[in-house]
Amino acid sequence: MLSPTPEVPETWRYLTSDVGRLWAWRKEAFDEAARDAGADSAVDADDLAALAREINRQEQVAERAREEHAS
């Protein structure tokens, strides 16, 4: 059975550079609390699976910041 293709959320755009590196940018920048917590709105990776993981990591950092800010 084939593993599912990693997906980049619709809130992000990505492209492949001329040397094959993948870059992604969040359509809307993270808020100040998320940025202060370390969330980055631009990431890069060697392949789509790694890019999807890095995007997910950034979204998790932002989510934790939102939760902390709300409490």
Biggest sheet features: 3 strands, antiparallel
Radius of gyration: 13 Å
Total individual domains: 1
Distance between the termini: 43 Å
Number of H/I helices? 2
What order do the helices and strands follow?
EEHEH
Strand content: 15-25%
* Helical proportion, percent range: 40-55%
Name the average pLDDT.
92
Major sheet strand order:
1-2-3
Structural class: alpha+beta
Uncertain segments: none
Tell the overall outline: elongated
Beta strand count? 3
Question: What would you note in describing this structure?
Answer:
The protein starts with 11 loop residues before the first strand and ends with a helix. A hairpin with a 5-residue loop joins β1 (12-16) and β2. It has a 3-stranded antiparallel beta sheet with strand order 1-2-3, covered by helices on one side. It is α+β, with helices and mostly antiparallel strands. 41% of the residues lie in helices and 20% in strands. It has one domain (12-70).
Topology:
Elements: E1 12-16, E2 22-26, H1 32-37, E3 42-45, H2 48-70
Antiparallel strand pairs: 1-2, 2-3
What characteristics describe this protein?
single chain; 71 residues; 3-stranded antiparallel beta sheet; 2 helices
Short description:
The protein has 71 residues and is of the alpha+beta class.
